[in-house]
Write a structure and sequence with these properties.
Low-confidence stretches: 101-110
Oligomer: single chain
Shape: globular
Helix content: under 10%
Mean pLDDT: 82
């Protein structure tokens, strides 16, 4: 089997690992990491969303995606959990939206975190030039890179950049 199509994917208690030399196509819906799921891992060759928006919800735990993410509908990360993207997602275009829910002074408790090590983890820079945030969210940098993406906050949100191991030079409008 070289390709599998699904409508949605849910990781429950204990997390899980979806991997292999396949293309996993999400036709509609999204990917949910529920409460107490631990770490969920997606490591297929390609995670394809087509023209649909890539909707990723991390409730309280971690979703690590090393796959190449493709699609033209953008990517939205919801929930207080952590999303780590490590693939060179140059086939991903559209808006990147980080939505952490209600604003809070504690980014880690209520806001959600997206972890990236390279600018292309966030998609194609020519067709996806910005990041929009709502609520309290954090972008954690684990590599050294430059980005000219525009960062837009809304809903009186808080956007925090955390440099874990590396340096990001952000030259876009904030």
């Amino acid at each position: 089997v070289s390709s599998v199509a699904i409508n949605s994917l849910t990781f429950g208690s204990g997390g899980g690992n979806v991997s292999g030399n396949i293309t996993l196509t999400v036709n509609s819906g999204g990917i949910l990491v529920g409460n107490n799921a631990g770490t969920a891992i997606i490591g297929v060759t390609t995670l394809a969303f087509g023209s649909a928006e890539a909707i990723l919800f991390t409730n309280s735990d971690i979703l690590n995606i090393s796959s190449l993410i493709t699609g033209s509908g953008g990517l939205s990360k919801y929930g207080p959990g952590i999303l780590t993207l490590t693939g060179a997602n140059t086939g991903l275009s559209g808006a990147i939206t980080l939505s952490g829910g209600t604003a809070s002074t504690s980014v880690f408790a209520n806001g959600g975190i997206m972890v990236v090590s390279a600018d292309n983890n966030l998609g194609n820079t020519t067709t996806n030039s910005g990041i929009a945030t709502a609520g309290t969210v954090a972008l954690e940098i684990t590599g050294t890179f430059s980005s000219a993406r525009t960062i837009t906050t809304s809903d009186f949100g808080v956007f925090q950049v955390i440099t874990d191991s590396g340096t990001a030079t952000l030259s876009g409008l904030i």
